[in-house]
Amino acid sequence: MGREIRKVPADWQHPKNEHGNYIPLFDGFNESLKDWDEGARQWDAGYMEDFRFFPESNDRHWKPKPDEPEYQISYAEWAGPRPRKEEYMPDWPEEERTHIQMYENTTEGTPISPVMSCPRELARWLADNNASAFGSMTASYDDWLAMIENQGFSVSMVSTPEGIQSGVQASAGGK
Q: pTM value?
């Protein structure tokens, strides 16, 4: 959790509440709904997700639910409620996602930049406006650009023997 690029239409305006604050929105409604529904189906069949690392596969893995009282609840009680569309960014068709915007995703997700047309423009805006890479830490143009062009996301922060770095700086190899 930290910073991530979200592809949006050129005219995207992230919604705000009655106080003018951004309304946090998750990304990826269709995928989240599909995952939740599969989890509920497996739960009802007596299985739960196995979160061990399976390097040979990107598929989800399932194991039998223990026969203990704390597992004799509904899937919604276990995993939380089924995703609701209004809590997510719109799932635009890919051809409409022509621009990018930087989001913080420590919560559900709110924008920390305007909508931009390309990575260089976004990195320049983030650096020139001292956008938060983590807390009060900012990042250089080169660090923002490297993060945007390489993986498109970063963790909030990284602790090293030299101290704490923002995830943006660490993912870009910054010092």
A: 0.81
